[in-house]
Amino acid sequence: MGKKRASHTRPQAEPPYQRAAAELRQTASTDTPSLFSRSGSPELETTGRVIMTAVDNDPDAVKRIVRDLKNRAGISNTLTLTAGDESASASDDVEATVLSEFGIVIVDAAPDQIVAAESMVQGASAPAKEYCHVEREYYCYTASDIDELQPSTTGRTRDYWIGYKAGVSRAVDEILLDFNDKGISETTTPSLSDEGYIPLDTTADESMVAGQEFTWGLQATRVSISRLNGQGVKAAVLDTGIDLRHPDFQGRIAASRSFVQGLTVQDGNGHGTHCAGTLGGSSTAGTIRYGVAPAVELYIGKVLNNQGRGREGDVVQGIHWALGQGCRVISVSIQRRVIKCQVPVSIAYETAGANALRRGALVIAAAGNHSNRQSSQYVPVSAPANCPSIVGVGAISQRRRLANFTNRAFCKGGDVDFVAPGVDIYSSDVTPNGYRSRNGTSMATPHVSGIAALIVQQEPGVSGQEIYNQLRANALGAVGGSTRDFGHGLARALV
């Protein structure tokens, strides 16, 4: 299921992750950092755990993995989870967690046992090489940067200025685009002026519809004029949790679970609450609507701690849980930096994304914020968005140009599939007044996830591939830009 631009296709039920596994096996011994030390980047720190994935998701292979872990590494305390299982949880003495539907085993044992587990696939005659892949687990992080705005001293509300800014920005865009048509580029951001832009969409040009104000992101994506609201659709947000006390989420959370040991699902960071708000916030406590699908059923998985850091295996386990809950959309505003294309994807992430597609669901993830485009510094799409079976989302500003930080598609399979609003995004948060603006591909991702939920609402029987195809069909393509940056274009809601 590659993301091949020529055929305009995307995740299909049988992605070629076996080929990726083979490539990873060939380079794992020479092209990865030391297991128990930091690499050059603070965002490339291994956790000390390994993730083992059965080839072809073969149940017999999973049994062999568990057996070999016991015989070769002395790992016998194993916990097996079925998708959606909330009754069992890992304890400190669990050495291996089996995600049965994925054929994945997360190994959390002593260092010498981890080395023994890795040795199962090392060397030409390694016993497990033919039926499993072993990869080192990395820490992952939120994909946003807070952009706090100072309180207004003019007597006007913040919502008023958001609407006012939207109107002024549209007028300025029209003038700038007219200059561009005449061959005159902008002088304030010369490094971005040649990267293309999303054209104005006059069908969604109102900041207020039927007395309801909308954020600029909901206007740009046509949510403001869509008749859909996500009713009856299950959508998961895997992040730092959610503020259970926030008035906009009372009675809205269908289920929640923390995958971070020692922490409840309560959000102590705000990032998860912000992303959940953009996807499905109900705006009951304010006048401005900021949620794409305010009637969606929210499933909240806490996979990052309150500092915004987590383990990739916990993210995979969160996807496993969400699918078991029947979620059709899984939003993952998480990034782990990718620095080399020789090892393009995590087999565990790809397996999770492919399983979601087979179950009629779609995993949507942030493309990452590691680039500095104004300095011509471009970084590949981050993990897990770089997986062929997972949708990657880049960010644009209110001027409909690429955000300075948004990553670019370099590696095979690691595409930007869509872009969405990701600068100065107003949503729910854990601030004293309950709201805040943030920047990041994290903020762009739940826009696309919410729009995917609207597609499922309209056609409940749609497959995961068909959700993707409809996102592509409704996207607004860029003018003068590259698919490496814009993908299929700006994701837009059905109207």
Automatic annotation (TrEMBL):
PANTHER family: CEREVISIN-RELATED, PEPTIDASE S8. It comes from Aeoliella mucimassa. It is an enzyme of class 3 (hydrolase). PROSITE patterns: SUBTILASE (PS51892), SUBTILASE_ASP (PS00136), SUBTILASE_HIS (PS00137), SUBTILASE_SER (PS00138). Residues 1-42 are annotated as: Disordered. It holds the Pfam family Peptidase_S8. This is Subtilisin BL. Residues 26-40 have a biased composition (Polar residues). Its EC number is 3.4.21.62. Keywords: Hydrolase, Protease, Serine protease. Residues 230-489 form the Peptidase S8/S53 domain. Belongs to the peptidase S8 family. The active site is at residues 239, 271, 442.
